[in-house]
Every structure is written in structure tokens, then in C-alpha cells.
């Protein structure tokens, strides 16, 4: 069974063709690297899957049902979550507050409902343990490392019972040590049966965690092959256009 | 971050870079509010030695009453500041609410309202707070819906509302009258067990706002807006509604304090609370609210307002020219943020 299928998806912005005839399939628990140069159509593709805007042509199937997303909430409601590059966290709040932001657990006391701090901290601690991250629920995000912030952002998606997570350059602005942490987090998600689309410029990251690599160039998919059957050299050639397709 | 203690290792990464900050560098103890509170206590101790009049019951009651009006509005403005906004229209709102309350009370007295006990007073209180609600709603809608800058919007509103206060009264003070006037003075300017009611209102409101900020989803969203508005919107928080709510609450706190001032003064002059917005914002900032948003709370609002009043009172007792008080309040604002800046620099290094 496939989780997400894109059939002949294309997108035009006025006279500009950002994406044409893209077909791809993602299976549950699969980690797929999405690579390509700036302007290759990666972001457009991600935004279509995340529901930021609908495609101009083609169909999207999620769990074999055709879906039509017009806003991010539509995509989120079926189980598609995005971890944004800037992570979209509130620095002044704790990890638990961020994980539960907008879906706080509450306790009713008469006509009022109050935050259930203990339950939220507990659940957040469980999520971090699952992700094997050394992040404490009651620590403020401002004081956290890049890797810990990623853990908070990922814990958010876990709470939402995501089935597929799109990660936009999660390792772009963090230290080497933290990169290892984030790649570990991605492996945990895979082990939990969650599919990950890793958008990255970093060849070593893609080759260490992904099972498959998809390469985009000038709005089309030029390669989609198992990581074992490819090499960083080949992918570089595909990205730059030195090699037409594979 | 310094002061890291090693956490137990994780089997996956085999390294540990997560430590616990010491208790006195976390939470309340590390906040600007805490050291401003310490400074306040120190100043009060010094003043009680310098002036025997400072701790006299009469002077304390005076200080308590004076700072309560500013403190109540500071609570409301602090909510706005925590979301990353600002409300400059509160001084004018205090005046217009006070004036409308006094005018309505005078107008309905002698009509059919007199036959129902306290009806006239309830209508006039409702009218005063209703005006404040409309002002807050106008601020909130312009800022949240249309996306105007909070500074410019509320600056315009400051002028509009102050102008209305003069236009409605033609510059004459409005005295409240009516069958319920004694009750009105009782609930606005009375004492309960020797404590002025204004300070009781302030403390009760501070506790309610403290609970709302830290223990309800609304409060959490107020902080989230100030921390990262884009993130708040992405998580599905009703950003517009929260913003409108804080401007309405800010205006309501101003209206309420304005009505209390009518009871205190026995009249609502058109120039009531002129320039108070600066003292109020100063009190919020001194108490630790960050004008960039995301940080602040009712304890800081109360402590900030009290600190300004204690210093003002101290200068009066010391016989220092009133004009210098204004200079000093400005200096304290800069000092408070300066100390906070130095402290964060030290903690970051």
C-alpha cells in the first residue's frame, strides 16, 4: 500500500511553469531524500503536499483517497505535517508549551478550564523519550541547542499522529554534533512507521538516512532511485544537469 | 549558558550537552521582576529610615491609592505588551470612561431609573465601561484585522479619545450625582477594614490575570503571540481573536481605573489622567515586561507601578521639586532595561 501518491502533478504561476508532470509514491515508514538546486521545484512540490496551494494539474492520493488541499490545515488533518526550516517555535515558551501549542490539554474546574501542566509535561517527556532526545519538557526553547529545537518541532508532529513528515533543511544551520542528533530523530520516526521526506542540500545526510533519493531539476523529476543504486557523484551530476536523467 | 551539570548519557548519541541551570538563574528569580522587587524593598527600607512619615498609616494609604489606579491599567497594558503590541490610548480612555460615567449618572438621576435601587449607578458604570470596550474593540480590529501598527493606531486613538473628552464636556469637569452617589463613592473610594478598595481591586485583578496568563490556553496564546506570531498562526491559534481580546482588556482596565478616579476626585475633568500612558508603560517595562513581546506578567505590573509611586512619594517627603520626579521616572526606566540588558549579556557569555 502506498501512503502518498502524486500523479502527473504540475504547477504554473502565471506564465512560469514551476513543476511539470511529477509522479511519485511514498510508502509508510519510508525515508526519502528530496534534492535539487535552488529553483528546481522542491519547495513548490513540498508546498503542494503540505496544502499551501493546490496543483494546477494532476492528482494527489493519500491512503488511496484523492485529496484536495487548499490550506495547510487540510493536509494536517489527514496526517501530513511539516517541520519548517525556522521550526516555528515560540522561543519564550517551554518545550512542552510548544509541543502542545494550539492544542493544550485542559482540566475543567466548574465553568473554567485550566491548563493541565502535569499531563502536558508528562506526555512531552514520553515523546522525547521515544525520540531518545535529551530534552526536558519544562526547559525554555530560547536556551536550547539547534538539535533540541528540532526535537521539539518533531515531537509536535508526533503528537499530531502524523503519518508523513516533510522536513525542510533540518540540518542546514546546526553543528556537526547536532546533525547526528537530528538524523537519529529521523531514524526513530522511520522505526515508528512514519514516512519522512527530507529536503536537503547535504549529500552525507541524505545518504546516511534515506532509502531512496528523488532529484528535481527545472521543475521535473529527473531521478527516483534506491540510495544503494546511486552515489553522491551521480546525484550531484543529476542536480547540476551534467547527467540528464537516471 | 554556563553552570551546566552533566545529565545522564543517552545510549544513542553517547554525549551530553543538556544541563540544568541553577534555580536562581531560572524562572522568577532570574527575571527582571525579581530584582526590581528587591530594589523596591531596599528603597522602602532606606526611606523608612530617612523619613519617619514614610511608614505612617496615612502616607501608606496615600501611596496605596495613588499607585492602584496606575497599577490596574498597567495590568491591562502588560497583556498588550506581552503580545508584542503597545497601547498608548489608555490615559485618554481613563478620562472618557470617567466622564461618560459621571454624565450618565447625572442624566439618569431624576428619571424613572430612580425608582429601581442602584439602577442608575449600574447604567452609568455600564456606560463608562462600554465606552472603554468600544475603544478597545476599535484598537483591536484596526491592529489585528487590518494589520495597522499598534503604536500608530493607539497614538491616533489617544488623540481621538482625548479630543472627544474635551468635546463632550466642553472642557468642564463632570461631577457624578444621583440617588446612589454615596454607594458610588463607597465602591470606588471606600475602605474595607481600613484598606482602600482600589488596592483590593488591583490585587484581585492581578491574581485573576496571573491565573489567566499562566493557567489557561488564552494566556498561553498571549505569550505565544509575543514569542513568535508566525508560529502561533501556523499552530492554528486564533491570532486575531487573541489580539482583539488583549486590546479590549487593556481599554477595560483603563475605563475601570478612570471610574475609580472619579470616586477619588469627586469629579471627572477632561484632562483626567493626561500623560498617564507613559507612567503606565514605564511601570510595565520597569516591572519586567519586554516591549519586544513574550515576557511580562501581573507581578511585574504591580511592582513596577508601586516602585514609581514609592519613589515619587519619597521625593515629595524629601521636599524635592515635583518637576524632578518626571526626570527621575525616565531615568529609572532606562536603568531598569539597562540592568536587564547587562544581566542577559552576562548570562549569554
UniProtKB/TrEMBL annotation, chain A:
Name of the protein in its database record: Sugar ABC transporter ATP-binding protein
SUPFAM superfamilies the UniProt entry points to: P-loop containing nucleoside triphosphate hydrolases
Annotated ranges, domain ABC transporter: 4-243
Single GO MF descriptor: ATP binding
Species in which this protein is naturally found: Microvirga aerilata
Record-linked Pfam families: ABC_tran
SMART domains documented for this protein: AAA (SM00382)
UniProt KW keywords: ATP-binding, Nucleotide-binding
Signal peptide segment: none
From TrEMBL, chain B:
Superkingdom field: Bacteria
Residue spans crossing the bilayer: 34-55, 67-86, 119-144, 151-169, 192-213, 244-266, 278-308, 315-339
Keywords: Cell inner membrane, Cell membrane, Membrane, Transmembrane, Transmembrane helix, Transport
InterPro entries linked: ABC_transp_permease (IPR001851)
Protein name: ABC transporter permease
Organism: Microvirga aerilata
Subcellular location, record wording: Cell membrane
Keyword Phosphoprotein carried by entry: no
Gene Ontology CC, one term: plasma membrane
Coiled coil segments of this chain: none
GO MF entry, a single one: transmembrane transporter activity
Keyword Iron: no
Annotated membrane topology: Multi-pass membrane protein
Amino acid at each position: 500500500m502506498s501512503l502518498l501518491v502524486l500523479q502527473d502533478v504540475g504547477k504554473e504561476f502565471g506564465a512560469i511553469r514551476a513543476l511539470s508532470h511529477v509522479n511519485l509514491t511514498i510508502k509508510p515508514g519510508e525515508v526519502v531524500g528530496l534534492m535539487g538546486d535552488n529553483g528546481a521545484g522542491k519547495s513548490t512540490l513540498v508546498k503542494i503536499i503540505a496544502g499551501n496551494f493546490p496543483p494546477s494539474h494532476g492528482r494527489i492520493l493519500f491512503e488511496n483517497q484523492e485529496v484536495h488541499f487548499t490550506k495547510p490545515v487540510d493536509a494536517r488533518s489527514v496526517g501530513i505535517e511539516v517541520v519548517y526550516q525556522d521550526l516555528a517555535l515560540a522561543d519564550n515558551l517551554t518545550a512542552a508549551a510548544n509541543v502542545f501549542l494550539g492544542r493544550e490539554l485542559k482540566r475543567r474546574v466548574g465553568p473554567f478550564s485550566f491548563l493541565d501542566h502535569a499531563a502536558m509535561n508528562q506526555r512531552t517527556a514520553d515523546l522525547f523519550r521515544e525520540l531518545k532526545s535529551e530534552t526536558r519538557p519544562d526547559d525554555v526553547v530560547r536556551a536550547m541547542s539547534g538539535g533540541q529545537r528540532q526535537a521539539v518541532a518533531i515531537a509536535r508532529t508526533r503528537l499530531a499522529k502524523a503519518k508523513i513528515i516533510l522536513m525542510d533543511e533540518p540540518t542546514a544551520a546546526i553543528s556537526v554534533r547536532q546533525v547526528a542528533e537530528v538524523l537519529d530523530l529521523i531514524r526513530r520516526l522511520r522505526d515508528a512507521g512514519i514516512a519522512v521526506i527530507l529536503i536537503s542540500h547535504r549529500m552525507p545526510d541524505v545518504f546516511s538516512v534515506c532509502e531512496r533519493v528523488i532529484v528535481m531539476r527545472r521543475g521535473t523529476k529527473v531521478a527516483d532511485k534506491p540510495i544503494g543504486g546511486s552515489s553522491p557523484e551521480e546525484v550531484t551530476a543529476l542536480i547540476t544537469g551534467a547527467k540528464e536523467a537516471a | 549558558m554556563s553552570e551546566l551539570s552533566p545529565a545522564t548519557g543517552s545510549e544513542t548519541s553517547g554525549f551530553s550537552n543538556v544541563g540544568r541551570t541553577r534555580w536562581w538563574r531560572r524562572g522568577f528569580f532570574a527575571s527582571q521582576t525579581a530584582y526590581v522587587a528587591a530594589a523596591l524593598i531596599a528603597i522602602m527600607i532606606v526611606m523608612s529610615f530617612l523619613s519617619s512619615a514614610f511608614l505612617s498609616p496615612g502616607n501608606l494609604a496615600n501611596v496605596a491609592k495613588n499607585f492602584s489606579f496606575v497599577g490596574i491599567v498597567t495590568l491591562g497594558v502588560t497583556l498588550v505588551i506581552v503580545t508584542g503590541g503597545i497601547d498608548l490610548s489608555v490615559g485618554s480612555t481613563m478620562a472618557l470612561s470617567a466622564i461618560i460615567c459621571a454624565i450618565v449618572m447625572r442624566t439618569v438621576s431624576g428619571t424613572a431609573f430612580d425608582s429601581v435601587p442602584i439602577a442608575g449607578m449600574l447604567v452609568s458604570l455600564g456606560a463608562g465601561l462600554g465606552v472603554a470596550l468600544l475603544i478597545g474593540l476599535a484598537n483591536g480590529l484596526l491592529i489585528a484585522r487590518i494589520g495597522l501598527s499598534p503604536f500608530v493606531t493607539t497614538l491616533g486613538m489617544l488623540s481621538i479619545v482625548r479630543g472627544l473628552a474635551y468635546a463632550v464636556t466642553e472642557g468642564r469637569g463632570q461631577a457624578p450625582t444621583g440617588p446612589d452617589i454615596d454607594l458610588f463613592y463607597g465602591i470606588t473610594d471606600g475602605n474595607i477594614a481600613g484598606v482602600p478598595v482600589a488596592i483590593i481591586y488591583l490585587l484581585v485583578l492581578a491574581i485573576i490575570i496571573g491565573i489567566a496568563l499562566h493557567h489557561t490556553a488564552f494566556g498561553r496564546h498571549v505569550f505565544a503571540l509575543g514569542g513568535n506570531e508566525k508560529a502561533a498562526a501556523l499552530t492554528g491559534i486564533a491570532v486575531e481573536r487573541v489580539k482583539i481580546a488583549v486590546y479590549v482588556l487593556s481599554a477595560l482596565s483603563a475605563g475601570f481605573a478612570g471610574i475609580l478616579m472619579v470616586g477619588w476626585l469627586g469629579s471627572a475633568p477632561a484632562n483626567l489622567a493626561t500623560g498617564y500612558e507613559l507612567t503606565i508603560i514605564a511601570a510595565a517595562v520597569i516591572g519586567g515586561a519586554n516591549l519586544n513581546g513574550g515576557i511580562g506578567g501581573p507581578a511585574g505590573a504591580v511592582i513596577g507601578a508601586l516602585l514609581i509611586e514609592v519613589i515619587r512619594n519619597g521625593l515629595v517627603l524629601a521636599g524635592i521639586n515635583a518637576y524632578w520626579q518626571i526626570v527621575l521616572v525616565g531615568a529609572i526606566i532606562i536603568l531598569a532595561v539597562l540592568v536587564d540588558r547587562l544581566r542577559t549579556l552576562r548570562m549569554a557569555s
